[in-house]
Amino acid sequence: MHCFSHTNECSQVERVNDIALERKNVYGIMVIFMAKYRVEIDHTVCHGFGACVELCSKFDLSDEDGKSHVEGAKKVSNGEAVELDELGCHKQAAEACPFNAIHIINLETDEKLI
User: Fold this and answer.
1) Looking at the structure, do residues 12 and 65 belong to the same domain, yes or no?
2) Are 84 and 103 contained in the same domain?
3) Are residues 30 and 41 in the same domain?
């Protein structure tokens, strides 16, 4: 838990059902913030073409496996995933992938956007 004495705010990040939640205690009121999107790269489909890297600085190509990787991602069974509040350039990168290896899920509705 992180607390800031000059603002009387505390926050704690935890994972529930693989979704990041940030709990913030502001003047005794607990507020919960959830990530809105999950960006996933399926490494069984990714061929390291690099369109995502050209469009979004949050992506890079690995010298080790030749696959695309996204900043802040955690390994999952078939690749990696990161949860975000805002998509930024991640959406353009996913749309540009010629192998459809990058997926975006709206965590509020569980809808697969890409």
Assistant:
1) no
2) yes
3) no
Q: Are residues 59 and 86 in the same domain?
A: yes
SS3 state of residue 95: helix
Residues 6+ apart with CB under 8 A from 85: 33, 35, 36, 37
Compute the distance between CA of residue 58 and CA of residue 72 in angstroms, rounded to an integer.
Answer: 9
Angle of CA points 103, 18, 111, to nearest 5°: 40
Taking the CA atoms of residue 59, residue 96, residue 85 and residue 6 in that order, the dihedral angle to the nearest 10 degrees is 40
Structure tokens at 63: 């010298």
Rounded Cα distance between 17 and 40, Å, is 16
Q: Count of domains in the chain?
A: 2
What does the pLDDT look like over 71-101, one tens digit per residue?
999 999 999 999 999 999 999 999 999 999 9
% of the chain with per-residue pLDDT over 90: 68
DSSP for residue 46: -
